[in-house]
């Protein structure tokens, strides 16, 4: 075995490996598109290298160039390290037309990587524009507001607010998130974040969509061109969208009485059963009328009852899940998956129409609530009687849509005589 030290024959001694000379590490250049930010640093070089990090987020933002469309499109990432001085007390401005992200590898809650100040992305008059600009915050809370603006020349853009933790450990944006004047912002995407003062993206044709996943949102308003909510809690008084909205595994604040509106609604609002039940129990409402917001619950009546307008007591009434093809007075917000009739003065019937957004297995229910001395028929789209509630009896019929016959078929029913 040869030991490091003297070689045989009296030759020159071998050298042990040596650490770099003092100052070498401090002189190392930063990575090409990633920088480090350390609010507690004592370094003076401040070039964003791990050995010479920026002290403020503003210094990082100032280092972000925009010298070509490729430069603007490629992500430029600032890693924010925890600061024992309570995080970062400064206003933060993202650069125009460029993809820039602030990320922290530590847990998002607590003061270490949070921003105390307002965050803005004025996506206006950038030097170069790529095909897409993506900016946002990850594991970084904000004690302040977030305001997003742009101009007609801005690239299509996304803003992402996210955290790794879920449940009580979410990050929070304590002030309003406001994007009401944007024209090119496609989406505000939020994950594991608390918003105690709401999100307003506007309901104009060029406003942003809003997506929230495992978020807690309260305050006065949630608005966007469209709204998608998954596994979230919403406690706002006004929910408004331009086109449509979807709520899956979403709970609504008790007695928050949210009013849901679609300013130019062409598609129904989608709920799963849990979300619709919670919306109803919270006192949620939607504007009425043939042009109001139709509601589709996954599974139809079996997923959650959506009452439509009461059926005409005599003659035939055409109905569908979202009002498409229905008789006037049973469209839009007058539509549903559960229709009832009482006070009949003659025989009546309901025809279950197609084209109302029905999916294979969806159900619709027709109920005769009184003991009127008239019968009530339920017909499929082709006009065939699939069930009858006899005269002098209360009863119900549940029909199921099947793609095989491409029509509504009898699923179950019952009646009760006097």
Can you give a write-up of this model?
The chain is mostly beta strands and 418 residues long. The chain folds into 2 domains: 26-297; 315-417, no CATH class. The protein has helices at residues 57-63, 69-73, 273-281, and strands at residues 34-38, 76-81, 88-89, 92-94, 100-103, 115-116, 119-123, 132-138, 142-143, 146-150, 156-162, 171-172, 177-178, 185-191, 193-195, 199-200, 209-213, 216-224, 227-230, 233-241, 245-248, 251-252, 259-262, 269-271, 295-297, 315-319, 338-341, 348-352, 363-368, 376-379, 385-389, 393-402, 407-417. The strands form 5 sheets. It has an 11-stranded parallel β-sheet with strand order 1-2-5-8-11-14-17-19-21-24-25. Strands 4, 7, 10, 12, 13, 15, 16, 18, 20, 22 and 23 form an 11-stranded parallel β-sheet that branches. It has a 4-stranded mixed β-sheet with strand order 26-28-30-31, with no helix packed on it. The longest helix has 9 residues, at 273-281. It starts with 33 loop residues before the first strand and ends with a strand. The model is unreliable at 1-22 (pLDDT under 50).
């Amino acid at each position: 075995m040869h030991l490091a030290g003297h070689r045989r024959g009296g030759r020159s001694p071998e050298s042990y490996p040596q650490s770099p000379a003092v100052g070498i590490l401090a002189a190392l250049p930063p990575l090409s598109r990633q920088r480090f930010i350390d609010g507690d640093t004592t370094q003076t070089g401040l070039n964003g290298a791990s050995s010479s990090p920026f002290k403020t987020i503003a210094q990082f933002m100032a280092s972000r160039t925009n010298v070509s469309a490729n430069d603007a499109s490629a992500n430029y990432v600032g890693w924010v390290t925890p600061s024992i001085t309570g995080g970062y007390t400064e206003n933060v401005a993202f650069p125009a037309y460029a993809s820039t992200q602030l990320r922290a590898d530590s847990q998002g809650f607590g003061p270490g990587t949070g921003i105390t100040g307002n965050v803005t992305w004025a996506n206006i008059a950038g030097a170069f524009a790529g095909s897409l600009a993506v900016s946002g915050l990850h594991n970084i809370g904000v004690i302040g507001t977030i305001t997003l603006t742009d101009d007609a020349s801005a690239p299509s853009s996304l803003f992402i607010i996210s955290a790794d933790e879920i449940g009580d450990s979410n990050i929070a944006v304590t002030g309003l998130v406001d994007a009401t004047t944007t024209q090119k912002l496609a989406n505000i995407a939020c994950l594991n974040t608390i918003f105690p003062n709401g999100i307003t993206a506007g309901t104009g044709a060029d406003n942003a969509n809003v997506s929230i996943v495992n978020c807690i949102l309260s305050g006065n308003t949630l608005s966007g061109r469209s709204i998608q909510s998954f596994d979230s809690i919403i406690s706002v008084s006004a929910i408004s969208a331009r086109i449509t909205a979807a709520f899956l595994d979403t709970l609504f604040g008790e007695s928050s009485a949210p009013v849901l509106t679609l300013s130019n609604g062409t598609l129904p609002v989608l709920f799963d059963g849990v979300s619709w039940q919670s919306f109803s129990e919270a006192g949620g409402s939607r504007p009425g009328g043939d042009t109001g917001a139709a509601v589709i619950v996954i599974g139809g009546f079996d997923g959650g009852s959506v009452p439509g307008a009461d059926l005409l007591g005599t003659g035939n009434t055409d109905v569908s899940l979202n009002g498409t093809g229905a008789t006037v007075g049973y469209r839009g917000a007058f539509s549903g998956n559960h229709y009832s009739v009482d006070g009949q003065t003659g025989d009546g019937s309901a025809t279950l129409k197609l084209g109302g957004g029905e999916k294979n297995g969806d159900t619709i229910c027709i109920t005769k609530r009184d003991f009127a001395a008239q019968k009530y028929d339920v017909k499929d789209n082709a006009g065939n009687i699939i069930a009858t509630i006899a005269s002098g009896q209360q009863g119900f019929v549940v029909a199921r849509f099947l793609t095989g016959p491409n029509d509504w078929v009898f699923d179950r029913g019952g009646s009760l005589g006097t």
